[in-house]
Backbone:
């Protein structure tokens, strides 16, 4: 039997992550310098993993993450609309502290 591994990767840090803002597909935010460095480090690590394919959401921040990883591995990236972030009840651009109910804010602050 052939083993299949699925590696899930979150995009690098974005401007909105740093500000604690919620992102959605239509409210995209570019990677920060830290986020781009995270991607470079991850690309070097994954290049040693023997990965056969890369699929990514077509959101800007995920493209900014997947493209350098694909380039480091010599693999094309397949961008899938089906992998887009799903809209929650909280509109994009709101801060996490304003979006969460009061009793959940303490939990978020502890993270």
Residues:
């Amino acid at each position: 039997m052939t083993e299949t591994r699925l590696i899930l990767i979150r995009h690098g840090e974005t401007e909105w992550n740093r500000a604690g803002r919620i992102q959605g597909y239509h409210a995209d935010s570019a990677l920060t310098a830290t986020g781009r460095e995270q991607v470079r480090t991850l690309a070097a690590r994954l290049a040693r993993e023997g990965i056969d394919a890369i699929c990514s959401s077509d959101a800007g921040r995920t493209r900014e993450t997947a493209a350098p990883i694909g380039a480091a591995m010599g693999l094309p990236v397949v961008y899938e609309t089906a992998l887009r972030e799903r809209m929650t009840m909280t509109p994009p651009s709101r801060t996490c502290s304003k979006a969460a109910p009061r009793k959940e804010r303490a939990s978020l602050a502890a993270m």
About this structure: Helices lie at 15-19, 33-46, 60-73, 96-99, 102-110.
